[in-house]
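Following up on my earlier thread - several people asked me to post the actual chain instead of describing it. Fair enough. Here it is, all 379 residues.
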Amino acid sequence: MHLYKPACADIPSPKLGLPKSSESALKCRRHIAVTKPPPQAACWPVRPSGAAERKYLEKFLRVHGISLQETTRAETGMAYRNLGKSGLRVSCLGLGTWVTFGGQISDEVAERLMTIAYESGVNLFDTAEVYAAGKAEVILGSIIKKKGWRRSSLVITTKLYWGGKAETERGLSRKHIIEEIVRAMTHVINQGMAMYWGTSRWSAMEIMEAYSVARQFNMIPPVCEQAEYHLFQREKVEVQLPELYHKIGVGAMTWSPLACGIISGKYGNGVPESSRASLKCYQWLKERIVSEEGRKQQNKLKDLSPIAERLGCTLPQLAVAWCLRNEGVSSVLLGSSTPEQLIENLGAIQVLPKMTSHVVNEIDNILRNKPYSKKDYRS
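Reply from S.P.:
Thanks for posting it. Predicted structure:
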């Protein structure tokens, strides 16, 4: 569950048995809440070697009639990462519903997109109460129910702030989310409505303040921040959030890896009629694209194309893989309006191993916007 500002795992030892799941994720835009079952902890007297650990795992799964080759990771190739320093495991690629669900696409297409994502190993689905005036949340829930997917296999995040039209149906007051921010999210989690919460579009100072309040009054702190991150937007995720990760364990869940479609390449010769930027409510996006800065960005994208061709991928796949190469990013949320687009973007997983330091440096030399950072997530 994420709260946001308004704007335009170890396997348990054989003696422990399998953990029982029951997850539910809520994510709020001024705060993020994610629901997931608490994993049972496994304590190894001495950390076993990779081979020994795999042997333990295979034996454990075999006892329960499961093959290691039948796991989602093995079948799909999807990678999973911890959400910040929490024990929650999320797919490194998630599916978002902004603009698309309940708006730009039909319910049938939405179901097709979710099916492709789920069958590709995606376990993280993001929405918000404000998306399509609540319709996105309803469509998401309806599809999950229709498909009969195990709730325990999913992480659902939603965001709070913009609710209904009434003054009491929006914001972060007790009336809207039960209580004020940190206390409210602690209550939501204690009531079993969510397992984790985080923030979206908060400053590093605000996140640190929330953490301090939580520790001072024995409440639950946020585990992640949802932030915009792409080739042309780097400062927060690469400079501010690593500091929070090291100090308080807050991870990054990023959105808009293609910069609202700007990096897709479709705006290289203007704004197509069927594009998002052509919609009346996205005039701001059109203005950004046709601006002087927008033209400079398009020129940089043209310079990046040879790199994508050399790696055997498309420009969007390169852009998503570039986001994933940052190991401080727990998950990158994809927004797609067609099955073909989603399949293409999911293909970034295959490009990730090719994102060597040499390739990353090539990209940085073209972009010339790498922010200065004292430390990274691995330090």
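DSSP finds 15 helices and eleven strands in the chain. That should answer part of your original question.
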